[in-house]
Amino acid sequence: MAGLKKTRIKEKKERKQIKKENRVAKNLLLLNPGNLAKEVYTYGYHFSWKTHLFVIGVCIAGMGVIGLLFQLKWELLVIVLIAMFLALPAFILDTYKKMYEQKRFADAATYMEQMLYAFQKSGKVLSALKETKETFEPGHMQDVIEEAIGHLEAGCSYSEKGVLRESLDIVEKEYECRKIRTLHELLISAEEYGGEADDSISLLLNDVELWKRRGYLLQGEKKKAHTNNVVSIVVATALCAGTLYVLNALPGILNMEAPYNVLTTGLVQVTSFGLLLWMIYVYAKSEKTLTRNWLKEESGRDEEYVLRCYEKAMSQQRRFGRNIARRVVSEELYAAFPEWLMQMALLMQHSNVQVSIAKSLDGAPKILVPEINALLQRLKEQPKALSSYTDFCKNFDIPETTSCMKMLYAISESGTGDAKVQIQNLLVQVQEMRNRAAERRNKSSAFQVKMLYSYPVFGASIKLLGDLVVGMMFLFEMLSEAGGM
């Protein structure tokens, strides 16, 4: 077992190294304006040579002015300008990627809403796809829907899934979003098995609306934090430059002779050089936070890492870091649990509880899969026992699971008579949990961006400490020369 885990860790490190090398190689290729234009085109935008040259000229000139302001020696100034030049393609690409991710999010939200409204009228996926296609202007989403329509109209299935599932898979592959999958499961179920779908559609419409609001709210927080980071970079750089010029002007203010130029001393040159490189890095890191996939409501933790934490938390052996692993898994489960319950609520419109649990396994968040498997096993052994339900996630600190699972048990026992009322009560719990989970996740994501605000302050503090040493030596030498006179 230990050998297997070591092998997994080694494989992960190798994958990370390969990914890093590929990223470096890609950034170097982007220095070619043609490659950069092609990459921008993949996001659906055009980038001209004139724009490229203008951006390079403005950024290099701006960094050159800042370098001259710090009176950097030409060797150091050239290195700073080269660093800026190398970072520029990534800055340009991130700007377009940011717009691309925002448009993808808007398109996905519009697609889900329009599909639900259209399906509510016709009750057919093909008709809903055709109507939804007309709401989009020519572009990627329209092309994807057209491809899905073409496959559905052709009626030729290439797998056991069936032509309907394959057609909707075309959209899912392009827009990897758990909510789109949930939508498609509902539409397939409603078309294949029939029955009243209005309640489910209303539930999902409300859910999509809340998801859309959360997405825009989080991105608004990130943009605000990024703006603050840029202000922090400008203020920190200006403060460092201002301090040096004040120090250099001190002899003139005191009518004394300056022993040397503070800005050209070795330590000040090194700290100024380091500060400018640090600020380029901080800006790049802050800009990168705005380019993440809007369609994924995730904590940012690696899925494999979370699953390893789950294994560690469930292990009976005493191991270092088990409490940390348990906390990580509890946070992930708290966010994933309401997603699964919403999926369950939609499935239970057409199936009983136990069948819905089995069906939910395919689309469930990965962290919940072991718990769902354990639940199915308990239900197989003791289908009527309340503990089969309430033992769900019992090893983790999620108080709401017990009450929600009791509701599932009640729905299972009540049959179809009282099921609708029970499902509505369950959904109230789901919405409350989702809002709390989204609040936590948004705070965590926004906090990570806000933390970058301290990076320029940290860089400026290190520089000012170095400059303070030079300043004290400068003052002592100036006073000693004044005393000697």
TrEMBL record:
Keyword terms, alphabetized: Membrane, Transmembrane, Transmembrane helix
Q: Which residues cross the membrane?
A: 53-70, 76-96, 230-250, 262-284, 452-476
The superkingdom listed in its UniProt entry is: Bacteria
Protein name, entry field = Flp pilus assembly protein TadB
Which species? Answer: Roseburia intestinalis
